[in-house]
Write a structure and sequence with these properties.
- With 140 residues, the protein is an alpha+beta fold.
- 39% of the residues lie in helices and 20% in strands.
- It contains 7 helices and 4 strands, in the order βααβααβααβα.
- It is globular.
- Bound molecules: inosine-5'-diphosphate (IDP) and magnesium ion.
- Inosine-5'-diphosphate binds next to helix 4.
- The site of inosine-5'-diphosphate (IDP) has 10 residues, from helix 4.
Amino acid sequence: MAIERTFSILKPDATRRNLTGAINALIEKTGLRIVAQKRVRMTRAQAETFYAVHNARPFFGELVESMIAGPVVVQVLEGEGAIKAYRDVLGATDPKKAEPGTIRAEHAISVGENSAHGSDAVETAQVEIAQWFSGNEIVG
Ligand code: IDP
Ligand code: MG
């Protein structure tokens, strides 16, 4: 499988509970490398742009509010098949349906406050990474 890069966000529910290191440990245990990382506060406009694909869904307002409720940690992860590898360790969107040992099974509060985001495809990963990092901030 090819070496890929994927985009990750440790969401406000995770930073609020001081889980950055615990989640990073689960990421690194899979062999994925954190090749860029910074802690930022998303603006409302940035959160709306990031989740624009969901803007007609009933939970969109709640989703945007949850993403701006506190700091987030944005990351680029690199490794073999990184997009699927990260989705696998994230677990299902709804933590009640997530496999034991996954980030969401271990740490998420609810389907909305589910601790982390991971890109779902190569194209979305590229767009999401470009929204948050310039090339010289990613050190593989
Ligand atoms: P994903 O994060 O697993 O890719 P998506 O379906 O892309 O899941 O949804 C994006 C985010 O929107 C989820 O991670 C979650 O925070 C939120 N979300 C999704 N479905 C619901 C819902 O039914 N109620 C509340 N929030 C939701
Ligand atoms: Mg998604």
